[in-house]
Amino acid sequence: MQTSKHKIIFYTDTPMYGGAENQMYLLAKYLDRQLFEPIFIIRNLPALDRLASRLQEINIKTYLIPSKSKHSLKNLTQLNKIILQEKPSLIHAHLWNPMACKYIFPVSLLHKIPLIITEHDPFKLGILKTVYKKVTLRFSKSIIAVSEANRQLISHLYPSHNRKTVTIHNGIEDAPKPILATRRHTIRKEIFHVGPETQVIFSAGTLHERKGYKYLISAYRKVLQKFPNSKLIIAGEGPERKKLEKLINNLDLVNRVMLLGQCENISELMQSANLFVLPSLKEAFGLVLLEAMQAGLPVIASRVGGIPEIITENSGVMVEPADKNALIKAISRLLSHPELMNKLSIQGVIRSKHFSAQKTADGTSQIYLENITNHRP
Asked: What's the pLDDT at 330?
């Protein structure tokens, strides 16, 4: 009979707090604490202060590694020190990037601790990175894909690991309390800088090329001609910001497109908007879509990655990626038909309930127990 909990090391060397990191937080929060003791190892960076603070609020031990780069050898030496100290039953690494978490593989091998990984970025790579990926996957006891599309892609790219790759969809918590009408009015006035009649088209995500924001901004120029009482607002930060600002300026959209930067109150912002659009070129899953649907926003998204597993025919609209004309058509159609937007809003809320953080945690717990039970030091 088990008398102690299994220590599970959660590790990522990410420099930012995004969707993958939020899933780590939710997974740890909803794990059965009678069975598992989650312990986080993250880098000591200002961008991760909020994650560290949230982990502290739910009493999860967190180690902060003082390294300036994911390639720094400090990651390796500190990881080794922590593993020796904690003696975990299992390590769960979250790969946000093709070369992410590279030092956890030799450390787990050295200490003979089973390692499982979640692939948040399982896309096709160049030759050198593909060789690296094949080597690291050999050391992983289980591979978790956050969508069935991801699992199929991993199986196609690395067929020898097909048997140990499983799909566990990302999940969300129960809907937060709806904001009051007065709060919605304040957000629209003081943050969005719009009146009550303005149609706010909203998006949220890292300002990265693969999010496809340049197509959305270009499409919006045409949408604006038909719907002058509208505004496009994008929440998030990232390497493409300067390019997007230049595009906005060149298209003379400075007063009609707003880049909000990193925001913590995404749910409130969503509840204050009218329509959500995710124009991604690649998307492992599309968690932000679930958050938008949960908030009651009708959604438009690219037909890529795990998105078709989220959006059904009645709960949203999908378009082909990098298709500006398709975005123009879809946005214009919804803004022209409020009854359709209302229908999608209702069905979207219903659909979002199929993806819960508890379901994600339960599925992952099974993977933990299987690997711990089958482990032979």
From this structure: 98
Residue 293 and residue 217 share a domain: yes
Both structure tokens of 85 = 């100290």
> Which residue range forms the structural domain that includes residue 87?
6-171+356-374
In a domain, 36, yes or no: yes
Q: Which residues contact 248 (CB under 8 A, 6 or more apart)?
A: 217, 254, 257, 259
| Strand, helix or coil for residue 33 | coil
The pLDDT score that the predictor gives to residue 285 is: 92
DSSP 173: P
**CA 241 to each of CA 103, 192, 211, 245, 262: distance values in angstroms, whole numbers, following the listed order:** 30, 18, 12, 6, 11
Task: Classify burial at 161, counting beta carbons within 10 Å of its beta carbon; exposed 0-12, middle 13-18, buried 19 or more.
Answer: middle
pLDDT recorded at residue 1: 43
**Chain-centroid distance, C-alpha 254:** 28
Torsion-angle region of 305 (φ positive above 0: left; ψ -120 to 50: alpha; else: beta): left
CA atoms within 13 A on the CB side of 74: 13
In a domain, 16, yes or no: yes
What are the DSSP calls for 290-341, one per residue?
HHHHHTT--EEEES-TTHHHH--TTT-EEE-TT-HHHHHHHHHHHHH-HHHH
Q: What pLDDT, on a 0 to 100 scale, did the predictor assign at position 18?
A: 83
| pLDDT score at 377 | 65
Residue 106 neighbours by CB under 8 Å, 6+ apart:
76
Q: What does the pLDDT read at residue 124? A: 66
CATH number of the domain residue 20 falls in: 3.40.50.2000
Cα(first)–Cα(last) distance of the chain, in Å? 20
Q: Which of 129, 63, 45, 57 is CA-nearest to residue 95?
A: 129
Torsion angle defined by CA atoms of residues 344, 348, 349 and 354, in that order, rounded to the nearest 10 degrees:
160
What is the mean pLDDT, run by run of 10 residues, along the chain of 377 residues? Answer: 80 90 95 97 94 96 93 93 97 89 94 94 73 84 95 90 94 92 97 97 94 98 97 95 98 97 92 98 92 97 96 96 98 97 97 96 97 83
Contacts (Cβ under 8 Å, ≥6 apart) of 84: 111
H/E run at residue 97: none
